[in-house]
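Throughout our pipeline, every protein is held as a single compact record rather than as scattered files. The remainder of this section carries one protein's record, kept here as part of the documentation.

===
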Amino acid sequence: MNSMNSMKEETHDVIQELELKFLSEGFTVFLPQNMSDRCLIYLSNEGEIFLNEPEEEPDEEHTYIALMYCILRILQYQRNGEVEISDDEFFEHAEMYAFVISLELLNRHTDMKTEPPPTLDNILKRDRPIKLAKPSMN
């Protein structure tokens, strides 16, 4: 299997995992603190590629579908189902979502902890307060 097919398969698998959890648990599955490491790492990679190449048209290798899916679901929650979004607004939300995903990976894989965790209402807001918690001195 070539790498393009495996990337499409992985994108499909991540979206399917999120969709199945969404159907049983609701919108909170799109909060990074509720995601599997697999989904977080995949979305982090999509966010990094998207943010580093924003002016380029997506190709078959980098479609950002999973990233878009999560952001649109969050907006669907915030706007009671109706979502209309400009390219500029999507880009701003993608920056914030990628940042919050990175914070969650930092929380999970280092002794640094940020708080409070994002909510569905504030996850895409730039003015959401974030502080570094005092490390526990064990």
Observations:
- The first helix runs from residue 3 to 25.
- The two ends are 48 Å apart (CA to CA).
- The chain has a mean pLDDT of 88.
